[in-house]
Write a structure and sequence with these properties.
Chain B: InterPro entries: P-loop_NTPase, Small_GTP-bd, Small_GTPase. Chain B: GO terms for molecular function: GTP binding; GTPase activity. The complex is a heterodimer. In chain A, helix 2 runs parallel beside helix 4, helix 5 packs antiparallel against helix 7 and helix 7 crosses helix 10. Chain A is an alpha+beta fold. Chain A contains 16 helices and 16 strands. Chain B has 6 helices and 7 strands; from the N terminus they run E-E-H-E-E-H-E-H-E-H-E-H-H. In chain B, strands 1, 2, 3, 4, 5, 6 and 7 form a 7-stranded mixed β-sheet that branches. In chain B, helix 3 links the parallel strand 5 and strand 6. Classes of the chains: A alpha+beta, B alpha/beta. Chains A and B meet through helix 11 and strand 9 of A and strand 3 of B.
Chain lengths: ~600, ~200
């Protein structure tokens, strides 16, 4: 574990900041401010701050193909949409008015794109009452979407429907000839005209040697992503940052590659008018479930995976048998429980990108067919090799736990089947299966269990036995129901070197999936602003609005995102963040997969 | 390829056919006795095994239920290579799926094992009112192409076990089949039976 055990977050009115750090700029953090204005940043002296920025960004694995080209198209919010059915015409006008706009090559800060963020939506679309991102409001977000049913909704709609146009977040995939490939809502084939319009906008800008990144129209943001012959577009009024929406488009593209590989481009070389929809037949649930995960799964923006909490020895036992299997010619052996990793092993020098894991898990979990029996299916890991298929053997041990064995050889099914039988025997014998089931029931870290006395730091206790740790000093945690100490409601800790994160369970103040999604969006915004390439990456941020106090802290080892009660005091919030980091370090053996390389244990 | 033991036979069997023809439903009916109205699309191919007793022998089917989606067509050889038997499935209410089935037959004849037993299953026979492909026309086609043909219904379990038993009976054995049953035996199965007995 590489975590820097000396990192501690200080603030100016704390005792020690004699090392020349900048004082906090917000003199009065607790005064209620309205949303954006209440943003304050807190500068911390981290000796190696600057050097880390790039490496941290690299560790994120976020690829920025647009790097260097920062032209933007911005449309002020006077776009009227009073006449149903005239949408195409209205959008086309944007092109004519605004395309001259982008200044050649001048790097305008992306924040300027948000000038109209809170701007008037005068005469704009009234968004649908239903927030269609969480079609299942009963979903226990953060855990899993048991109640949420994957699959396409509102198939009968098209762009002439008011209901379709009121949807808050659309995703489209189309070909560079304007043929629809995928639409989140409605029937692709009925959206041919709309797709053609999107294609016209993109190619109009491309023809002038430029590239369109986004268009802002009132409350709506239209984000474009061009991937060779495939265009991806998101139209959203969710106020998510441009960067977050673009990353989501990247993931949708990655999911498509996982199913088809990049060699699908050849179809378009042969025939530019190629209709790609049949190739994606039967995958609606894969895409709808990925899009749903944009509003509950932190892995979609953190570029990290998360592990099921398990005793170190249990995970080790699972890892040992997977390693055994990997040595027999399996490229990757992955044991998962829903979206959480139990253990994972790669053949020598093969490493699995967290985004690939996210897409792979989403693919397996959203395809009912894998649950019926053992399967052998070609899949592509876009970050591993976007051009080639691997072959995936998938087998469910029970309702939640499944094994994925990946190989490069198309005729090794029977070998992989044998491997699975070996793995299963060991897992049963060493009680891994039952431990996993127990951990599923117990859940992850609970903010109520955060040890308040930092001197108590035995790293051997299972997180499920959190109560034991609270005994010294007779301190009792606040009763379950009002969050953790100092108003701590929730946190996410991402280990940069491990590419893993751990997220606390949602507790009482954040119960409904709607609240969880709102918090998640706030984190996402925080993440985007912390990693903003133009204004430079930040190290810490303290943000207060009517919903939360949000605190983010990034070091070379980890990123911590924490949400507190909106009335939480800054000094104690910072203190609690330090506690959380200490707690995570104490528990790292159980909440992270350590030593994923074969020689470290 | 059928591997032979004294009285038990392992046989790889592959199901091919258009999307939604009912391949998975046939297999699930045969293997688990289940039927689901809304069967999800298969990804890649699902593997099942089922052992049945035919006459004196037991036949262990290793069944590959392939996905009908277009993107998997080029990968089909991976699953039918070395298969002892294939069931090509179409939906009697969908002429396109019958056209697609004929293409599968063609492909198997061109590239598959020449000894492969091929069955043609006209599935969804319970949907009589919606029938678009007649049994007579298919029967003629099947005879011309040396296939045996049955109309099946995974939903009502009609002819599902029968088609698998029929295949099992036709599989070559280590020992000559005791009672060749009163069915029409094509030339090829007879040859194969002879060939198998030579090796034993």
């Amino acid at each position: 574990m590489t975590s820097n055990s000396t990192s501690t977050l200080h603030l100016d009115n704390n005792d020690n900041h004699d090392d020349g750090q900048n004082p906090i700029t917000n003199p009065n953090p607790s005064s209620p401010k309205t949303s954006e204005e209440s943003f304050r940043s807190l500068t911390i002296n981290e000796p190696d701050d600057i050097d880390n920025e790039d490496s941290a960004a690299l560790a994120n694995g976020s690829m920025d193909p647009d790097h260097g080209v920062r032209d933007e198209i911005e449309v002020s919010g006077d776009l009227k949409e009073s006449v149903p059915g005239a949408e195409a015409a209205v959008v086309a006008e944007i092109v004519e008015e605004e395309v001259e706009g982008p200044s050649e090559g001048s790097p305008s800060p992306s924040s300027s794109g948000y000038a109209g963020e809170r701007g008037s939506s005068g005469g704009g679309i009234e968004e649908a009452d239903e927030d269609d991102d969480d079609d299942g409001l009963t979903v226990e977000a953060g855990s899993d979407s048991a109640a949420w049913v994957a699959g396409k909704r509102h198939l009968d709609e098209d762009d002439a429907f008011m209901s379709w146009r009121k949807r808050k977040k659309h995703f489209f995939v189309l070909s560079n000839s304007g043929k629809p490939i995928y639409s989140r809502y409605g029937d692709e084939h009925k959206l041919a005209g709309f797709s053609a319009t999107l294609q016209a906008i993109i190619s109009f800008v491309e023809n002038s040697g430029d590239r369109i990144k986004f268009v802002r129209a009132g409350k709506n943001q239209v984000v474009f992503l061009v991937k060779g012959p495939i265009y991806l577009v998101c139209i959203s009024c969710t106020e998510e940052p441009y960067e977050a929406l673009r990353e989501q488009l990247e993931l949708i593209y990655g999911q498509m590659l996982l199913i088809l590989t990049k060699s699908v481009n050849r179809c378009f070389e042969k025939n530019p008018k190629y209709d790609m929809t049949p190739l994606l037949g039967g995958t609606e649930a894969v895409f709808s479930s990925l899009i749903h995960s944009f509003s509950w799964n932190p892995a979609t923006f953190l570029h990290a995976y998360t592990c099921l909490p398990l005793a170190y020895s249990t995970r080790q036992a699972a890892g040992a048998i997977l390693q055994d299997v990997a040595d027999s010619g399996v490229l990757f052996a992955i044991l998962m429980c829903k979206h959480k990793v139990v253990s994972l092993v790669g053949a020598q020098k093969a490493s699995l990108h967290p985004d690939d894991m996210l897409l792979l898990a989403n693919f397996v979990l959203s395809s009912e067919s894998f649950r019926t029996s053992e399967s052998f299916s070609p899949i592509c890991l876009p970050k591993y090799n976007p051009m080639a298929f691997l072959y995936a053997y998938v087998h469910y041990f029970d309702d939640d736990m499944y094994l994925i064995l990946l190989t490069t050889s198309s005729d090794s099914f029977y070998h992989l089947k044998d491997c699975r039988i070996r793995v299963e025997k060991v897992l049963v014998k060493s009680n891994v299966l039952s431990e996993v089931q127990r951990s599923m029931l117990d859940g992850g870290l609970h903010v109520e269990e955060l040890p308040v006395d930092s001197s108590v730091s035995s790293g051997t206790l299972s997180p499920h036995l959190g109560q034991d740790r609270l005994a010294p000093d007779g301190f009792r945690p606040p009763p379950v129901g009002i969050g953790g100490p100092a108003g701590l409601w929730h946190f996410i800790y991402r280990s940069i070197y491990l590419d893993q994160y751990v997220s606390s369970e949602f507790s009482s103040p954040i119960n409904s999936s709607r609240q969880q999604k709102r918090l998640y969006r706030a984190y996402q915004k925080l993440y985007a602003s912390m990693h903003d390439r133009d204004t430079g990456a930040h190290k810490t941020q303290f943000r207060k609005d009517e919903n939360y106090v949000l605190l983010c802290w990034i070091t070379q080892d980890f990123e911590l995102y924490a949400a507190f009660d909106p009335l939480a005091d800054k000094a104690s919030a910072i203190k609690i963040c330090n506690r959380v980091c200490q707690w995570i370090r104490d528990l790292e053996n159980e909440i992270f997969l350590l030593g994923a390389s074969p020689f470290s244990w | 390829m059928a591997t032979t033991a004294t009285k038990s036979v392992n046989a790889k069997l592959v199901l091919l056919g258009d999307v939604g023809a009912g391949k998975s439903s046939l297999v699930l009916r045969f293997v688990k006795g289940q039927f689901i109205d809304f069967q999800e699309s298969t990804i890649g191919a699902a593997f099942f095994s089922q052992t049945i007793a035919v006459n004196d022998a037991t036949v262990k089917f290793e069944i590959w239920d392939t996905a009908g989606q277009e993107r998997y067509h080029s990968l089909a050889p991976m699953y039918y290579r070395g298969a002892a038997a294939a069931i090509v499935v179409y939906d009697i209410t969908n002429p396109i799926s019958f056209t697609r089935a004929k293409k599968w037959v063609q492909e198997l004849q061109a590239q598959g094992n020449t000894n492969m037993i091929m069955a043609l299953a006209g599935n969804k026979s319970d949907l009589l009112d919606a029938r678009k492909v007649t049994a007579e026309a298919t029967q003629t086609y099947a005879e011309e192409n040396n296939l045996f043909f049955m109309e099946t219904s995974a939903k009502s379990a009609t002819n599902v076990n029968e088609i698998f038993y029929e295949i099992a009976k036709r599989l070559p054995r280590a020992q000559p089949v005791q009672n060749p049953v009163g069915m029409v035996l094509m030339d090829r199965p007879v040859e194969r039976t002879a060939g198998a007995s030579c090796c034993s």
